[in-house]
């Protein structure tokens, strides 16, 4: 196999987290008498971290101090409910197991708050990732390559021996900024047309196709 490490995004790539994200967002909005958002709106808001999700979800012109309160309320609720409706995509566990059985490292790099990444990886993929990291204080989030580069350093792997698997334009940009290959998936929060309009050269539509791409 060409690659020594496969780095995955989380939301929309290995886990369908949309309903829990929407529920916690709408809970936080309702606490402050703000209009709730639809699932489709939340789908398009996700990808740049929870803070950006809150900025997009609140009504235009909401003061910064109120956005902070909505964010805090979301966090408190999501910590308790992040796994209520979240589920792995069909075939994802088998894909990760195939990669590991080939002697290749596996990792998660997400813009999701780090607490969420740790909880969900432990709950749904125990022992299947060598490294998992989310958004943390002082580390620039994707599409900056900082967290991806940290993973490559951790395992002493050159970027030419790494591939990033994701579902959004942020992931396309992250891989480009890190100088590594990218495998975009079409089952997540963005459709194929949108991904190709935003720089994706190739989109897979099943974990089996992803395995063929990774194992080429």
Automatic annotation (TrEMBL):
Which Pfam family name is an example for this entry? HAD_2
Instruction: Give the highest taxon in the source lineage.
Output: Bacteria
Tell me a GO biological process for this protein: DNA repair
| SUPFAM superfamilies for the chain | HAD-like (SSF56784)
Q: Which GO terms describe its molecular function?
A: phosphoglycolate phosphatase activity
Give a GO cellular-component term: cytosol
Recorded protein name is: Phosphoglycolate phosphatase
Species in which this protein is naturally found: Lachnospira eligens CAG:72
Q: Taxonomically, what lineage is the organism?
A: Bacteria, Bacillati, Bacillota, Clostridia, Lachnospirales
